[in-house]
Amino acid sequence: MTTYSYSSESAAEVKTGLLIVPVFEGPKPGPGVRETGLTKAYADAKHTGKRGEALLVTRRDGDRFAAGAVLLVGVGKKDELTVETVRRALGRAAATARRFGTVATTFPQVFSSAKAADAVQAAAEGLGLGDYRFDRYRTKRDDAVGLKKVVVLGSAKWPAAPLKASVKRAAIVVDAVCWARDLVNTPAGDMPPAEIAREAQRMARSVGLTCKVWHERQLEQGGFGGILGVGKGSVNPPRLIELTYTGAGNATPIALTGKGIAFDSGGLSIKDAKGMETMKDDMGGAASILATMKAIARLKPKINVIAAIPCSENMPSGSAQKPGDVITHRGGTTSEVLNTDAEGRLVLADALAFLAERKPELIVDTATLTGACVVALGTSITGAMGNDDALIRELIAAGEATGEPIWQLPLHKEYRALIDSSVADIKNIGDRWGGAITAAWFLAEFVGDTPWCHLDIAGPAFSDRGTDLSPRGATGAPVRSLVRFVLDRAAA
What we know:
By secondary structure, the protein is an alpha/beta fold.
């Protein structure tokens, strides 16, 4: 386990395995180079300070720094530096840092005191997230020791208490994001709906959340036709996970839900082999909500949060739901299933209806819902749709603050007619085009007048190539955004 701390100790004096120092592009590389006595080494190496460049200098007798080595990391031009630059640069640097075990960084020191808290948190997050590896199934593991200790260095002029709080918050967020990644990266054979529920129960006990798991009989009695319908073809029965965090007495809660398809074969509308390769990630929405609830329970904001997480496995068999079937959802709305591979909206519909009955202040759902959203926004941006623009703006702001971009797509009213059914209240697919929007319209049928935002994370939840902050596989998006959103709500 990695420990995180904040210190105002000077860069030259800090004793650590590796010291990471930012270097600017241009004639003035920055104070870190001067303080560590590496001005000549920097010049001799013809380091330019451009983003992506790095120079590792091992300590020798007579050097002015106490660290075992110094990593000079190019961050580009000083006037273009952002907090997100810090997070990503240190995410990349973590690949080197994990060989040393202990690391300190001066990155936040190049910011003003007004941005110190965000810079300190971003520095700790970057190193922690970049250090993540999923090697549970490897017989030959990475030889690097991994990060054991992270020290974020700030200015002696800054008040220490809020910055120590920023580091603590970063450690909690990193732990939550990495847990979400573990849940998604675990092969579907080892993470069926029942195991997701057991993970939720173990987590809830460890952080003090209330957890209730609904089994098949309870789901039948409760009218959760979408969750049950999607799970009919699998030998692994579905579950609904209910979590409660109480931090504000009797105040009206906010509500969260996430799509938990443990594996998506497409059902009888089966995917091709290539399309199934990464479908263990179809519970990325559920993982993000579980991880958010874990972080919130540890951060203890003064707010109430409830979550309902539907988990099913979408498989073909003689008992699977068929194209043309009609299912009755929680609350009585009926939907015609024309494509069994449009299943995420079916389970989310039940969860949304269930949460809306609780009269929350708002509902946010996350789901790896549509390829159409990836076509529109690519693999790095979450699509947001809903019935409340102010709520969507809050989530966009939270995403901007945490480096998880969110972009609003139009819930165009004319597209609502595309999910009209001739035999049921609605159908689960529209026409070929605008699929992200028609999917959101389907979900909108189940929230009533409750302010609601749908986050389509089909692009950013899983990376085929890896990112600055994660190796190939699950990214943990949008946990950082959701935690920031809840904390901002609590502080408002």
